[in-house]
Design brief:
The protein is an alpha/beta fold. The protein has 2 domains: about 90 residues, Ubiquitin-like (UB roll); about 130 residues, Cytidine Deaminase, domain 2 (3-Layer(aba) Sandwich), CATH 3.40.140. The strands form 3 sheets. The chain has a 6-stranded mixed sheet, sandwiched between helices. The chain is globular.
């Protein structure tokens, strides 16, 4: 409409902004580095499906991870290609996917999980909202993790959160192997997005499958759901879980850990996987 205001978006993950800092009755001008969030549209075979706000980096990982954890794709090879297009209102990710997946997507319409803070927006019924994933990991029952590794990983992840160090505004999800090494890490202003990016990167890089996901956020039910749908049997969160997350973790045989610190953590489900 004529005269309608528009907001300019940035394709950088972070930018510098002039700010006024108030401290002890002193006001100074400073430059802060601020994390960006951009409307990102997922477009499947030419049909726009969903728009989310996310940090504009690792977008190919985001496209693949989101498509897998939402059940749009059955396997990474169902995604034939991703084209990133810049639009006046944001970024379009044009995904070319297998025809069988696209047909199913059209039939499911708005059967979405966990793309917003409430985790249920976009689901058309209660039956669609809470899907219990089945672990795909072949050796899930033998994937044991030492308690020492969880403590070491907590210390290791902070120095690798490059965007968080710059901005103080992003979540991270990381894949930790049994040597307590951070094999892969992805960051985003949204905790779900960071996890989707990580799972997308893992689907392509195929790191060793013995380990766990460490997230710097709380453990909501959709974080459990996405982790389990990727065939991973342990999620470690720096903050608290929700009750629904605990019950879902119990049902899908996932070990859920919260309040991870350098020398302590709390196990909420399936403690048998922690040595």
């Amino acid at each position: 409409m004529p005269g309608e205001a528009s907001i300019v978006f940035s394709t950088a993950a972070a930018n510098e902004y002039a700010v006024m800092r108030h401290q002890k009755n002193i006001i100074d001008s400073h430059t802060d580095i601020i994390a960006e969030e951009v409307p990102i549209a997922m477009v499947y075979n030419g049909i726009s499906h969903v728009v989310m706000l996310a940090t504009p980096q690792d977008l190919e990982d985001f496209a693949l991870g989101f498509s897998l954890t939402e059940g749009i794709l059955d396997k990474p090879s169902d995604l034939y290609g991703v084209e990133i297009g810049l639009k006046p209102q944001g970024i379009e990710l044009q995904l070319e996917i297998a025809s069988s997946c696209f047909q199913r997507l059209k039939e499911q319409r708005r059967n979405m999980t966990g793309r917003t803070g409430c985790g249920l927006c976009g689901s058309e019924s209660l039956e669609q909202a809470l899907k219990i994933p089945t672990l795909k990991l072949a050796n899930a029952s033998t994937n044991k993790v030492s308690s020492k590794i969880i403590s070491i990983a907590f210390a290791n992840i902070h120095e690798q959160q490059k965007l968080q160090i710059l901005t103080g505004a992003t979540h991270a999800s990381a894949w930790i192997n049994l040597q307590a090494e951070v094999e892969l890490i992805r960051e985003d202003v949204g905790r779900h997005n960071a996890l989707d990016k990580l799972l997308g990167a893992m689907a392509m890089a195929k790191p060793q499958r013995s380990g766990f996901v460490l997230t710097t956020s709380r453990a909501s039910y959709e974080m459990v759901q996405k982790t389990a749908s990727a065939g991973i049997n342990m999620l470690v969160a720096i903050s608290a879980p929700t009750g629904l997350a605990i019950r879902m973790a119990e049902q899908c045989n996932l070990t859920l850990v919260g309040f991870a610190r350098e020398n302590s953590f709390v196990v909420y489900s399936h403690p048998e996987n922690i040595i």
